[in-house]
Amino acid sequence: MATEAPPGELGMAAPPFALRATDGRTYTLADVRGARGVVIAFICNHCPYVKAVLPAMVRDALALRSFGIGFVGINANDAVEYPDDSFDAMVALAEDAELPFFYLHDDTQEVARAYGAVCTPEFFGFDARLRLRYRGRLDASRRSAVAGARRELFDAMREVALTGAASGEQMPALGCSIKWK
């Protein structure tokens, strides 16, 4: 069953973190942010909603770089109950999909809880001061990609980079629930 995320508390400060990435190194919020902001994407390997948007997420992460927006993926799922979301499986996905961003493992689930994340994929967009300006979905895709869907996250974060705020309607993320321990 799909889980819908609640609306974002716009203006909320980005909680700090230090998590291991698929390259074996540990990265912090300061390491992944761009000069004009950052997108924190809660994703995982096995979720059909993530699989549906992964190519568009890669496209948008690359495009947002030119606007000074950093991008990071975080997997907080319980890998014991969901072995497809294990760290080794994350490494394989990062390589296979040629992810242009760090893919971090939140094995304690403390970071997901600090952000209030509830589903995958779920996107949190922060401005240059690391204040929440967007919480929602990538686009209208669900279990399959919607051809020609408006790039909701990209449009919002481009506006954040240029003006400091996102003025459009923010549609909630919908996907698989985070698999809590």
From TrEMBL:
Q: Which Pfam families match?
A: AhpC-TSA
**Which InterPro entries does this one have?**
AhpC/TSA, PRX-like1, Thioredoxin-like_sf, Thioredoxin_domain
- One GO molecular function term? antioxidant activity
What are the residue boundaries of the Thioredoxin domain, all occurrences included?
8-159
> Please, which domain of life does this record's source organism belong to?
Bacteria
Q: Which PROSITE patterns match?
A: THIOREDOXIN_2 (PS51352)
User: What name appears for this protein in its UniProt entry?
Assistant: AhpC/TSA family protein
